[in-house]
Give the backbone structure.
Amino acid sequence: MLKTHPLSRPNNPNFHSSFCSCGLVHGPVNCTINLPADVRNLREAWQKLSSPSLSQIVTGNHHAPEKFPRRSEPRLNGLIAESEQWAAEAIARFGGIEAVMASAYGVDAEGSIRDTLPDSPFTRRKFLQQVAIAAALTVATNCAIPEPEEPDSSPVSRLEKTHLKIGFLPITCATPIIMSQPLGFYQKYGLSVELVKMESWEQVRDSAIDGELDAYHMLSPMPISMTLGLGAPAFPIKLASIENINGQAIVLALKHQDKVKEAKDFKGLTLGIPFLYSMHNLLLRYYLASNNINPDRDINIERVPPTQVINLMKAGEIDGFLMPDGNAQQAVYEKVGFIYLLTKDLWEGHPCCSFAASKPWIDEHPSTFRALNKAIIDGCNYARNPENRLEIAQAIAAPEYLNQPQSVLEAVLTGTFDDGLGNIRTVRDRIDFDPYPWKSFSYWITSQFARWGMLEEQNTSHEAIADEVFLTGLARQLAKQLGQTPPTIILRDEQLKFGLFDPSEPDAYLQAQIQKHGF
């Protein structure tokens, strides 16, 4: 059963049984609050004075923050004084203090916060007043400020830029970005796009930092790692939408078909992944660690560009890999490997690749960015329909795109495929295309970054990172403009093969993994 979380609770008795398009539950009145001009400044000031910044969280370069700002802060006092009347009206319209706090912080917010501050100098009245203003601002600025609406097809004159360059790696995960050119989705939104084929994820990362292109096909963990400065200087990247879900596989060389039957048989093998900050790496580690195989001690993991992985396995330099399904099926096609495990069987509906752009570029080209993101979301929706998969396979097989046999791509996209061991399997959602960027994806990714030493565990603020990187609200809005029915919440429980991930308790999940397996 789907468990909802703070900011998205449909069963709260204080609220009407209806959702706003932003994903929050409201009372009888929907998002009709007229916000004063200084509300954004108040929220920004509140955040700065009550918690460390994202960069401080990541680097650890901060002192323990005050849980609530002190009354001696003149900047905050002035802003609160100017906005108290608005806050009181907002609180009333949302059903009272308890209702606002429940929506913003959870059902028993007052009790939970009070329990964590047993010696607070605040009186209950002042404490609730302060928290309620913050709660009202949280609700209002996440809900009541609508993003500017764009018509379904913006005139070219309204776009800041119409001729774009988008970088991609030639893998099936890039299907929406690639197919949107030959099938006309970019043109539909007034855009002329040149697709730039790239060789490795390192090249994609460096190109984005240098501002060489306009937007990029990226692994879904990359916007997070780049924004946090993991493996390279920090650079703000926004994950606009998910390109594909599922769509990866563990493949082993044919020489191992009688030797490797389960996870313990992986000991001593050398396996390729495309990038350190990838779902491929995280899912491979998850699979092995859940079976008590230490991925840093019991096997060798090497970074290999997807374009080189088949040749390296032919040469015997790697024993297998976890790569996109196009590489997996190519290994079968060339009779050098077999499909050991689809990642769908580790986590059904997991994110793989994403459409992303840098914050500076988005800020400079807001209308163009929305049109481009809408084209990708529209293309994803088209690709979700199984009836369109053969057409898509033909469109993306060309040398300038994936340069693979059409039969290989049809096997991936239709889900009827040879596994390399003489079996014809049918898995219709072997790869699928759902553009909605669930923030619970980000929470799981950062929990695993912390688990494997890529991110300091004590400095991980899962919520702040997800809010900084994932443009979930915009993706929902654009999908609705296209007549789609995106989810109305931002978090969901994620059911993985070896246990449930509850995004409201990412650190508890992380600690349970470490305690159970020792790493």
Notes: Residues 74-93 form the longest helix (20 residues). The chain is about 40% helix and 15% strand.
